[in-house]
Amino acid sequence: MDFQYTEEQRMIRDMVRDFAEAEIAPKAEEVDQSGRFPEETFAQMGPLGILGLPISEEYGGAGADTISYALAVEEIGKACGGTGLSYAASVSLGAGPLDSFGTKAQKEEYLVPIVKGEALGSFGLTEPNAGSDAGGTKTTATLQGDRYVINGEKCWITNATYAKAVIITAVSGKKANGDNKISAFIVPTDAEGFKITRPYDKMGVRASDTTELVLTDVEVPEENILGDPDKGFGQFLHTLDGGRISIGALALGIAEGAYQKALAYAHERKQFGAPIGKFQAIQFKLADMAMEIDLARTMVHKAAWLKDQKKRFKKEAAFAKLYASEMSTRVCNQALQIHGGSGYMREYGIERMLRDTKLMEIGEGTSEIQRMVISREIGCP
Amino acid sequence: MNIYVVMKRTFDTEEKVEINDGVIDEEGAEFVINPYDEYAIEEAIVLKETHGGEVTVVTVGDEEAEKELRTALAMGADKAVLLDTEDLDGEMDHYTISEMLGAYFQDKAYDIILGGNVAVDDGAGQTAPRLAEKLGINQLTTITKLDIEGTTATIERDIEGDQEIVEAELPLLVTCQQGLNEPRYPSLPGIMKAKKKPLDTLDLDDLDLDEDDLEAKTKTVDRFLPPEKEAGKKLEGEPAEQVEELVNLLRNEAKVI
């Protein structure tokens, strides 16, 4: 067992940290308040290879491992949760399935632009009446001749405004047992009948692009089906398992950012003639924060390591996402408490972190869904 | 063009530095490429992109410095060389380092050698000029602009708040000052490629040097952090009263007027 980062992992972390501190952190407050998606940040990340970090070299990626990717997400999340969410969604949910299941032609057409930073990756699973319960999917794809006609609605879809194509899940027929067969389709965003709007005013991660999709008789060629048409469902589950590692890493980054601010503030702020960090009430909060962050990091990296070793990682990804996200909400809340009145003010950035991190307990499977996944994995009746 | 960079690994002065018994606590320190040497690496890569050729980054240190060499390779340097100080027991100073570099460069064909203006740890700015002296080549320090045409370099230098434009013939050693360029981030593909690039380690035998030849010329007597700043004093009252109080303090307490 070796807890040391490889030279590459360390260099990737350092590079992304330097980039995030210089280019992302300075505008975190502005993009939070305005809800503006920082397109220019992603334009910079493309040439640096950050957007194709774990993608195969054949398609312009860096071919780095999942641990490196988790480190990168953590560093970006530490600087800005919203930017981190769009990044993680583009890589894990957008580029990931194309890389794992796409044909050569699909990768050249849709994956390469994501890696280059010309377009973001986007994955459309959630619907008004379906989410983690993907079986409830109402969007349909009907084969007419050599084209699929897609109809339906998707909600809370990250990055679609800036995507060249969205990977859409839809019911494409019936299985032998009568259940709905769900497949994934690559739907170009400029297809006729494909309407993308941003009707949401979010609590946090406000810099990330969150959209509603309405598909009315959208036609895509048969070859736009992604991966095996009959195993579509298994593919999203795999995609979501990978995505959970990145949400865990993102929560970790936000928590680390809040903790560092709280630790610094505990040195600066004086009450009763001493820095508040001299008081055990504050020390113990900080000690718990430091411990929980490190525990979460260990779990996130273990899940990433299992994925890299091509071992089963479903349960560990759920552990990582569940523990890191709930931990981060606790840590950000305590960091705000240590800041007292200052923490409640926008200028300290702590209240933003608390708002941002709450999403980590909800997106890509709520905490309740993670507990369901874990219960199933440990063999509950 | 044969382009060389002499680089130093230093602790990050933007992070907390702790000193115990006159020795810097390396356990708690963060290490980086000396920021001025980053300008040198960037400029070397720009020269290669413009004129073709090869960039070799050389450092003197222990195996820990391989990390910083790999970062330079990830930025775009082609080769890295570590002149290993493992065999040296005694204290090292700028003399030691420049002697080792001098021995390394003795049989090398170089058009230009770039270094940082100073290292942020000791701020001496001695190693590179000493190296140029030893090699008997032209040297220009604190440069902020570099153009090379044929074998002539046109250079702008910082001189006490003013600019000086100088021409010099290659081979040449320059030290780089802030303002010369904006060092790039190593790209992800660059990081992945870095491990496949050559990194050679040379010890004293390889350099044909003896420990006795490298004995430091200086001795460090003590190291200490600057004294902590005391809290300032806030003057109160009407502006006129405050001015009066300030003048009084400057005259009687600070004794500067």
From TrEMBL, chain A:
Pfam families: Acyl-CoA_dh_1, Acyl-CoA_dh_M, Acyl-CoA_dh_N. It catalyses: a 2,3-saturated acyl-CoA + A = a 2,3-dehydroacyl-CoA + AH2. PANTHER family: ACYL-COA DEHYDROGENASE, ISOVALERYL-COA DEHYDROGENASE, MITOCHONDRIAL-RELATED. One of its GO terms (molecular function) is flavin adenine dinucleotide binding. The keyword Flavoprotein applies. Residues 230-378 form the Acyl-CoA dehydrogenase/oxidase C-terminal domain. It comes from the Bacteria. Residues 6-118 form the Acyl-CoA dehydrogenase/oxidase N-terminal domain. Keywords: FAD, Flavoprotein, Oxidoreductase. InterPro entries: Acyl-CoA_DH_CS, Acyl-CoA_Oxase/DH_mid-dom, Acyl-CoA_Oxase/DH_mid-dom_sf, AcylCo_DH-like_C, AcylCo_DH/oxidase_C, AcylCoA_DH/ox_N, AcylCoA_DH/ox_N_sf, AcylCoA_DH/oxidase_NM_dom_sf. Residues 122-218 form the Acyl-CoA oxidase/dehydrogenase middle domain. This is Acyl-CoA dehydrogenase. SUPFAM superfamilies: Acyl-CoA dehydrogenase C-terminal domain-like, Acyl-CoA dehydrogenase NM domain-like. Belongs to the acyl-CoA dehydrogenase family. The keyword Oxidoreductase applies. It comes from Natribacillus halophilus. Its cofactor is FAD. Coiled coil: none annotated.
TrEMBL record, chain B:
Pfam families: ETF. SMART domains: ETF (SM00893). GO terms for cellular component: cytosol. It comes from the Bacteria. Keywords: Electron transport, Transport. One of its GO terms (molecular function) is electron transfer activity. This is Electron transfer flavoprotein subunit beta. It comes from Natribacillus halophilus. The lineage of its organism: Bacteria, Bacillati, Bacillota, Bacilli, Bacillales.
